[in-house]
Amino acid sequence: MSVRQWGRAPDDPAAEPALLLHCSLAQAGVFAGFARHLPDRLSIRAPDLVGHGGGPDHDPARDYHDQAAGDALAHLPAAPCHLIGHSLGATLALRIALDHPHRVRSLTLFEPVLFCASNGPGRQAHDAAVAGMPGALARGDRAEAARIFLSLWGTHPFDALPDKHRTYMADRIWIPQATEPALLDDSAGILPRLTALDPPTLLLRGEASPPVISEITARLADDIPDVRTCTLRDAGHMAPITHPEAVARAIADVLDSL
């Protein structure tokens, strides 16, 4: 299934539409526990992103982030919606909100991995931690590339995962490299437009996440006009999966204030 649905029916006149965009190497189904903790007035839709699950294949002639943003946009409800993204999905959500502000009622970004927003010691530590990935990919050692990636961003070591999860992630470990033009070099021109971001925005991060995340969050919080920030105690990068109730509660508090 390439699209998941939770909450109220889309045709319920009392429903508020919401779109969820997942992180890299995942799929929409990872939001199942999290979505059930969100306010019951929402009608929630979550597509598999390009190259993930049942999502579209990546067109090698296209920039990955361009294609993924275009595909996610196709799932955006016609009425202004609550747009929620995690990690890679948060960078796509931010891009969509900048490009189509009148279609976004509120924006929630959980740890957008927009590395071009950071140039401090956290960014340097991040770059050192993943420095072995290009060589592993060049050798065709997808398992080693995934092992390096998950050592920084995962909840469990790669080798501790079930076989099917290791295979799924190793088969898609090319995706982080494919996102580099947008996430490292800002090919989508996100940073210069942050001061014009219109929807009310919630920036969420986990207290235990890599330091580069706090640097990215600080830059975005400085530039986005209508922004709130929230740090979740004892949580890391995968908090929408490991701490779904706490993440949902933080989002609900913002939605209740609109």
Task: Outline the secondary-structure elements.
Blueprint: E1 3-7, E2 16-21, H1 32-35, E3 42-47, H2 64-74, E4 81-86, H3 88-99, E5 104-110, H4 121-129, H5 133-138, H6 142-153, H7 163-171, H8 174-178, H9 180-183, E6 201-206, H10 211-223, E7 227-232, H11 239-242, H12 244-257
Parallel strand pairs: 2-3, 2-4, 4-5, 5-6, 6-7
Antiparallel strand pairs: 1-3
Describe the structure.
- With 258 residues, the chain is α/β, with parallel strands linked by helices.
- It has twelve helices and seven strands.
- Strand 4 (81-86), helix 3 (88-99) and strand 5 form a beta-alpha-beta unit.
- The longest helix has 14 residues, at 244-257.
- The model has no long low-confidence stretch (mean pLDDT 96).
Count of DSSP H/I helices: 12
Q: Major sheet, described briefly?
A: 7 strands, mixed
Q: Quick check: average pLDDT?
A: 96
Give the terminus-to-terminus CA distance: 33 Å
Order of helices and strands: EEHEHEHEHHHHHHEHEHH
Strand content: 15-25%
Q: How do the strands line up in the largest sheet?
A: 1-3-2-4-5-6-7
Fraction of helical residues? 25-40%
Radius of gyration: 17 Å
* Overall morphology: globular
Poorly predicted segments: none
Class by helix and strand content? alpha/beta
Find the count of extended strands (DSSP E, 2+ residues). Answer: 7
